[in-house]
């Protein structure tokens, strides 16, 4: 739809296509939203999705099976113990052909029934579940147990139809029951919350288990068991699984913060105390909320819906800041605790669709879509300004999942186009000869040698379903609920299989109900007689990230063009945006003409140039060795803290002698407090939060602390600096100076301390470093463009330095003006005039809005 300001009556001589002019010159007019998709187009895309699946699954079976996962760059399988250890990531691998098990029910959804039958035979023949390996309880439950149960349900359905799987005798269910029993030892805790890891052969407490020392688990890890464990109990008749999963859910509910009704991120499995009190809907908590809602759908137990509704009200009150979802402190939920979001929260719009809350679902999904437009994929984490925080993209399916749910709820073909963009980007940027490779950094496009099993389990399932009609599917998809790994469990379990005795928990007192507390969403009720309601909601967030920015439908329309270097002339800035500039003397007078020239309709855009508040950035600090023999010549780059003394305001910094803390991590009582008193302490990162260490050392009398990274080889050249943050509680009591050194810089300091018993250092902001003048920081600028009435400039309405654009039939006249108007009020001089020719084709397809340059030394780190 064309901007309202264009729809005005003009004379015949003045009638011409302003849309083409504006689009050609600046690319600012919004493209027509032609989102409808023909059945033929959907078929082409669906066939493309099947071909992509064949490439991914075929590569796994050819190059990796029976290994757990495919390494798509190396074209071989990832076998645990034979590849470099990746830490907790490898806890998903149990030497049980993970990708095969995770993919089984996807084969049925994609109507690959022959391949499904063959894959089931392979799983029964090759997969062992008694390996001496420590695995994640959470990952093994959702991927392997869920995969076995989903495959059993599909195999049983095909067997009942009579044309396939007639040989099948519930072998997959027997495997699921065996795995369930191998996971049960994890629940042997005083609280009922499960251990995060278990040895498939030896359990948890056995001397041979190599696990059982963990004391914490994430909320999602403990709260994402109920679907699989309850389904296993209902299908096998053994109630023990559902009992344990319900108990874990009960503990999390009881341990919620009663004032805010929020839960934290990490909890102690023995005493139920919260370890990390951040609350959000992303990593660490996400699927706990998902499983409350879906447990009600699968099991028909009102207790789960009541709990979900109470939590959901709290989420919408404290965490939801449409279109953003920001983590807060569970005890003080009115304050956001971080300025970035992780990609796992992309599932939440889909959950909101199940809840019936479509408006915020549409808003958040549109925000996420704009981020994918800017970065091609959702980065693993991104800031509230939509810059990259963590650049990885692991082929996660959550955004596709929410896209599927929104299309099914709204029927809006816009979401088909979103799905099409996902398909195209996966093919263009992640496809490799041996499958699809994760993206190591969305800013560079570099690949990572991994293709996680969830890519086959979830991504292709949601994409295929998005472009399929019910009649084209081998099953009735409405008969099933998706687990968090997109495995299919029949909703009939609540009626055909009896609830386990003693498993019905007390229903809490419900808060005030809303329209959809106990009913499914109805677009007719929510948006009566408004078939374009989704577009109406989306339009407010269309240009959130600056990509494809156009005139916004506001009473006063304006465009903000970020200008971050005051040394760049505005005209040069426009050039950098793809607008070609030609001196006015190369254009005939007729091309510009006077105000009354026939066939010319003039619109003035007044650009007001103003300094903007500088975006928050990490200010580098330094540790300067000032005692002999260094005498200030050795300077180490350090990161600052968001709490404690503000060294940037200390003209002379903080000077003191170095003393190594004992214990070195400073997480326990300080044994050498007398030595530390009045000096600067040296402490190792890890084992507890920065704030905990700082408090202990402050109590011991330290005047400053230098934290050294415990990750070997890290350094300030290869790793962006970050700001240390507190533990979520108030840090106003911490007043000493705090800085952070990466491992390589820290080694210089520790070596100096070993060689010279007395080492004096100076802690200060880098701009105050001894022997250097103060750094002059560039300031940011915004150019705000707005429509001005004819003659407004002459009347002095524009204040300060301005740029004047005059849109005419053939182009844009750009005039630079100083604060004082030119003498005579006539046309500007030739030197002040430049002509903006029509933008290149690239300028129309690539947005005429410059993104903020990525600051390498930016971000915060909450990990101790």
From TrEMBL:
Please list the cofactors this protein needs: Ca(2+)
Q: Under the GO molecular function aspect, what terms does this record hold? A: calcium ion binding; mannosyl-oligosaccharide 1,2-alpha-mannosidase activity
Give the span(s) annotated as Disordered: 810-864
The UniProt entry's GO CC annotations, sorted and at most eight, read: endoplasmic reticulum quality control compartment; membrane
**Which EC numbers characterise this protein's activity in its record?**
3.2.1.-
- What does the UniProt keyword field contain? Calcium, Endoplasmic reticulum, Glycoprotein, Glycosidase, Hydrolase, Metal-binding, Signal, Unfolded protein response
Superkingdom per UniProt: Eukaryota
Answer whether the UniProt record assigns the keyword Endoplasmic reticulum to this protein: yes
List residues binding Ca(2+): 484
Q: Where in the cell is it found?
A: Endoplasmic reticulum
- Entry annotation: catalytic residues: 139 (proton donor), 286, 380 (proton donor), 398
| GO biological process: one example | endoplasmic reticulum mannose trimming
One Pfam family, please name it: PA
Q: Which reaction does it catalyse?
A: N(4)-(alpha-D-Man-(1->2)-alpha-D-Man-(1->2)-alpha-D-Man-(1->3)-[alpha-D-Man-(1->2)-alpha-D-Man-(1->3)-[alpha-D-Man-(1->2)-alpha-D-Man-(1->6)]-alpha-D-Man-(1->6)]-beta-D-Man-(1->4)-beta-D-GlcNAc-(1->4)-beta-D-GlcNAc)-L-asparaginyl-[protein] (N-glucan mannose isomer 9A1,2,3B1,2,3) + 4 H2O = N(4)-(alpha-D-Man-(1->3)-[alpha-D-Man-(1->3)-[alpha-D-Man-(1->6)]-alpha-D-Man-(1->6)]-beta-D-Man-(1->4)-beta-D-GlcNAc-(1->4)-beta-D-GlcNAc)-L-asparaginyl-[protein] (N-glucan mannose isomer 5A1,2) + 4 beta-D-mannose; N(4)-(alpha-D-Man-(1->2)-alpha-D-Man-(1->2)-alpha-D-Man-(1->3)-[alpha-D-Man-(1->3)-[alpha-D-Man-(1->2)-alpha-D-Man-(1->6)]-alpha-D-Man-(1->6)]-beta-D-Man-(1->4)-beta-D-GlcNAc-(1->4)-beta-D-GlcNAc)-L-asparaginyl-[protein] (N-glucan mannose isomer 8A1,2,3B1,3) + 3 H2O = N(4)-(alpha-D-Man-(1->3)-[alpha-D-Man-(1->3)-[alpha-D-Man-(1->6)]-alpha-D-Man-(1->6)]-beta-D-Man-(1->4)-beta-D-GlcNAc-(1->4)-beta-D-GlcNAc)-L-asparaginyl-[protein] (N-glucan mannose isomer 5A1,2) + 3 beta-D-mannose
Q: Where is the composition biased (Polar residues)?
A: 851-864
- Pathway, per Swiss-Prot/TrEMBL? Protein modification; protein glycosylation
Ranges for the PA domain? 654-747
Keyword Nucleotide-binding annotated = no
Which family does the UniProt entry place this protein in?
Belongs to the glycosyl hydrolase 47 family.
Q: What name does UniProt use for this protein?
A: alpha-1,2-Mannosidase
Give the species.
Scophthalmus maximus (Turbot)
Q: Which gene encodes it?
A: si:ch211-282j22.3
């Amino acid at each position: 739809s064309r901007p309202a300001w264009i729809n005005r009556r003009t004379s015949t001589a003045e009638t011409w296509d302003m849309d083409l002019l504006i689009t050609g010159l600046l690319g600012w007019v919004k493209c027509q939203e032609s989102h409808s998709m023909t059945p033929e187009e959907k078929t082409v895309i669906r066939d493309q999705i099947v071909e992509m699946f064949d490439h991914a699954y075929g590569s796994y079976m050819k190059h990796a099976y029976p290994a757990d996962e495919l390494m798509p760059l190396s074209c071989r399988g990832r076998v645990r113990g034979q590849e470099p250890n990746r830490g907790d990531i490898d806890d998903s691998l149990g030497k049980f052909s993970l990708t095969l098990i995770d993919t089984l029910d996807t084969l049925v959804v994609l109507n690959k029934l022959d391949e499904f039958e063959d894959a089931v035979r392979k799983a029964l023949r090759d997969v062992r579940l008694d390996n001496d390996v420590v695995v994640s309880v959470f990952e093994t439950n959702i991927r392997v147990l869920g995969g076995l149960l989903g495959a059993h349900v599909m195999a049983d359905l095909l067997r009942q139809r009579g044309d396939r799987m007639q040989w099948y005798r519930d072998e997959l269910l027997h495997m699921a029951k065996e795995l369930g029993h191998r996971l049960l030892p994890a629940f042997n805790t005083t609280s009922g919350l499960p251990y995060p890891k278990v040895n498939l052969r030896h359990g948890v407490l056995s001397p041979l288990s190599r696990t059982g020392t963990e004391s914490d688990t994430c909320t999602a890890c403990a709260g994402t068991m109920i679907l699989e464990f309850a389904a296993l109990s209902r299908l096998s008749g053994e109630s023990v699984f559902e009992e344990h999963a319900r108990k874990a859910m009960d503990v999390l509910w009881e341990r919620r913060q009663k004032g805010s009704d929020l839960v934290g991120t990490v909890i102690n499995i023995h005493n139920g105390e919260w370890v990390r009190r951040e609350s959000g809907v992303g990593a660490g908590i996400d699927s706990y909320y998902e499983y409350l809602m879906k447990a009600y759908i699968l099991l028909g137990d009102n207790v789960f819906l009541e709990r979900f509704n109470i939590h959901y009200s709290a989420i919408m009150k404290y965490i939801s800041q449409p279109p953003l979802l920001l983590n807060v402190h569970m005890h003080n939920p009115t304050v956001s605790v971080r300025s970035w979001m992780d990609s796992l929260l992309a599932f939440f719009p889909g959950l909101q669709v199940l809840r019936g809350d479509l408006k915020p679902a549409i808003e958040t999904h549109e925000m996420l879509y704009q981020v994918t437009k800017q970065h091609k994929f959702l980065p693993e984490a991104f800031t509230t300004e939509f810059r990259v925080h963590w650049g990885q993209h692991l082929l996660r399916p959550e955004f596709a999942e929410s896209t599927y749910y929104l299309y099914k709820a709204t029927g809006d073909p816009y979401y088909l186009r979103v799905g099409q963009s996902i398909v195209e980007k996966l093919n263009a940027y992640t496809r490799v000869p041996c499958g699809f490779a994760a993206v190591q950094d969305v800013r560079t496009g570099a690949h990572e040698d991994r293709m996680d099993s969830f890519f086959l389990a979830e991504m292709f399932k949601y994409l295929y379903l998005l472009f399929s009609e019910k009649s084209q599917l081998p099953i009735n998809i409405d008969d099933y609920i998706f687990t968090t790994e997109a495995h299919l469990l029949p909703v009939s379990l609540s009626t055909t299989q009896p609830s386990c005795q003693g498993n019905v928990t007390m229903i809490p007192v419900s808060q005030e109900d809303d329209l959809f507390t106990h009913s499914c969403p109805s677009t007719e009720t929510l948006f009566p007689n408004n078939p374009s309601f989704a577009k109406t909601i989306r339009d407010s967030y269309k240009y959130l990230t600056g990509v494809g920015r156009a005139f916004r439908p506001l009473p006063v329309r304006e465009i903000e063009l970020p200008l971050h270097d005051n040394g760049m002339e505005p005209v040069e800035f426009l050039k950098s945006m793809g607008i070609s500039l030609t001196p006015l003397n190369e254009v005939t007078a007729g091309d510009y003409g006077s105000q009354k020239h026939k066939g010319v309709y003039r619109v003035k855009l007044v650009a007001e140039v103003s300094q903007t508040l500088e975006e928050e950035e990490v200010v580098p600090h330094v540790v300067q060795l000032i005692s002999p023999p260094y005498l200030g010549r050795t300077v180490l780059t350090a990161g600052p803290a968001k709490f404690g003394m503000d060294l940037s305001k200390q003209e002379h910094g903080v000077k003191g002698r170095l003393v190594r803390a004992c214990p070195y991590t400073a997480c326990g009582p300080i044994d050498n407090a007398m030595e530390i008193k009045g000096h600067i302490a040296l402490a190792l990162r890890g084992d507890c939060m920065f704030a905990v260490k700082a408090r202990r050392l402050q109590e011991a009398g330290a005047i400053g602390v230098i934290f050294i990274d415990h990750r070997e080889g890290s350094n300030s050249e290869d790793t962006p600096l970050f700001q240390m943050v507190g533990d979520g509680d108030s840090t106003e009591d911490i007043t000493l100076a705090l800085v952070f050194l990466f491992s390589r810089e820290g080694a210089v300091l520790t070596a100096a301390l070993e060689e010279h018993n007395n080492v004096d250092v100076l802690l200060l902001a880098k701009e105050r470093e001894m022997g250097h003048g103060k750094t002059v920081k560039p300031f940011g600028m915004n150019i705000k463009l707005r429509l001005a009435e004819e003659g407004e400039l002459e009347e002095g309405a524009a204040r300060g330095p301005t740029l004047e654009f005059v849109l005419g039939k053939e182009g844009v006249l750009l005039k630079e003006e100083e604060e004082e108007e030119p003498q005579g009020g006539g046309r500007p001089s030739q030197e002040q005039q430049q002509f903006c020719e029509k933008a290149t084709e690239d300028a129309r397809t690539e947005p005429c809005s410059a993104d903020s340059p990525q600051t390498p030394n930016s971000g915060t780190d909450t990990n101790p």
